[in-house]
Amino acid sequence: MSEVYIVDAIRTPIGKRGGALSAVHPIDLGAHVVKAIVERTGIDPADVDDVIFGCVDAIGGQAGNIARMAWLAAGYPQHVPGVTVDRQCGSSQQAVHFGAQAILSGTADLIVAGGVQNMSQIPISAAMIVGQQYGFETPTSGSVGWTERYGNQEVSQFKGAEMIAEKWDVSRDDLEKWALQSHERAKAAIAAGRFDNEIVTMGDATVDEGPRDTSLEKMATLKVLVEDGRMTAAVASQISDGASALLLASEEAVKKHGLKPRARIHHLSARGDDPIFMLSAPIPATQYALEKAGLTIEDIDLVEINEAFAPVVLAWIKEIGADPAKVNVNGGAIALGHPLGATGTKLMATLLNELERTGGRYGLLTICEGGGTANVTIIERL
Predict the structure, then answer these.
(1) Of 325, 283, 331, 281, which Cα lies nearest the Cα of 307?
(2) d(CA 187, CA 326)
(3) For residues 80 and 71, is the Cβ–Cβ distance under 8 A?
(4) What is the number of alpha carbons within 13 Å of residue 243 lying toward its C-beta?
C-alpha cells in the first residue's frame, strides 16, 4: 500500500490582533512559510506538484487564489499550480487531506500544504459583510431548501457553543478552568522552547503573542456573550494572524530526493453533524476515524483539538473518554490564537514536534468547522 509522509512542518509565530504580523500582506505571510518549508527540506521547488492552502474570507489581499499568489511571491517556478481551500476553521487541515489523497492516488509526489490568515486586516466573516451590500443578510437567508429544513433560527458559532455547553452540562466554572489551563500550558511551553523547532520568525514576530496573564477571578468578572449563557470572551479562541505549511511526499519522492520524513499519515477523514450545533462534529468524526483506523482513544498518545471555544473540547473529552492530560498539552487557541485558514497545519506542526519530544507514536488532530463538519487526521511518528 502506498504511503504519505510528512517531511517537515513549520509555522510563523501567531500574532494577536494588531500585533507584529498585522501589517503584513497576506500573500507575503503565505510566501514566508512557503520559502521556509522549501529551504528547510532542501527540495527543488520545480519538483513540487501542487500548492494547497487553506484560507477563509478570501477577499481583498486574501482573494484570487492565495495559494498560487504566495508561491509566486516566494519567487518559485510559474509551472507549479496552486489551489485555495475553504473548509472554514479546518481549511489547512483539509489542504493536507487533499494533498495526501493526491499522493495516494498516484497523481502527485510532492505537495506543499498549508494555510494563511490575517484577521487583523480582514476580520472574521468579512465575506458576509461584503455580501450584505448584495442583499444577503446571512449566508442562508433566502434559501428555500435551507429554510424548509432548518427554519429561520440563528446559525452561529456562539449559539452552537452555548448549546454544546448546555447539552453536555459543562459549567461556566469548568469552561474557565480549561481556559486558564490553556494559558498556563502555553506559557510553560513557550518558556521551555517547545515551539522553537516549528516556528520560523518573521520580522518582529518571534514568539506567539496570545498568552496573557489571567486568573479565574479576572474571568469571573466578564459578561456572558448571551443573556443567561455560560460563554464569555475568556473561553473563546483569539483573533489572530499567521501562516503555516508542511511538505507531503510519496515513498518514491522520499527515495528520489533523499528526504528524511518525520511522520506518516495513518488516517484521514471528515464527518458532519448538526449545523445548528455547528461545533459538535469532532465527536462523531473522531468516533468514525478511530473505528476506520482500527484504533481506540487509548492508542492515541497526543491530541490537538482546536479550542474554538472551551465547550467544544470539554464535550469531546466527555464523549470520547479521552485523558485530558493528553489533550492540547501545550495550550490551545484560547491562549495561542486561531488564524482560521492556517490553524490546521499550525496544529499539525505542534502535534508532530510534541510526539517527537515525548516519544509518542500516534497523534490525532481534529477541528470543528462552520457548517457542522470536522476533519480528523491521525499521524504516526517515525
Answers:
(1) 331
(2) 17
(3) yes
(4) 31
User: And the C-alpha cell for 185?
Assistant: 500550558
DSSP 46: G
| Residues 6+ away with beta carbon under 8 Å from 366 | 282, 285, 286, 289, 303, 304, 305, 306, 316, 374, 375, 376, 377
Nearest to 51 by CA among 104, 105, 110: 110
- If we measure between CA atoms, which residue out of 108, 103, 23, 112 comes closest to residue 76? 112
The catalytic position among 55, 89, 266, 267 is 89
The grid cell for 299 is 492508542
Q: What are residue 9's phi and psi, to 5 degrees?
A: -150, 130
Which tens digit of pLDDT belongs to each residue from 7-33? Answer: 999 999 999 999 999 999 999 999 999
For residue 110, the tally of other CB atoms under 10 A from its CB is: 26
Give the span between the Cα atoms of 47 and 348, in whole angstroms.
Answer: 23
Which of the residues in the chain have pLDDT under 70? 1
Q: Positive or negative, the Cα torsion across 53, 59, 60, 64?
A: positive
**156 CB-near residues (< 8 Å, 6+ apart):** 278
Cell of 263: 511522520
> Where does residue 85 rank: exposed (0-12), middle (13-18), buried (19+ CB within 10 A)?
buried
Alpha-helical runs (H) found in 42-193? 66-73, 91-105, 126-132, 144-150, 157-167, 172-191
Mapped onto helix, strand or coil, the DSSP state of residue 340 is: helix
What is the torsional sign of CA 96, 303, 118, 276?
Answer: positive
pLDDT of residue 226: 84
338 belongs to the catalytic site: yes
Which has the closest alpha carbon to 341: 24, 4, 14, 74?
14
| CA 186, 189, 11, 280 torsion-angle sign | negative
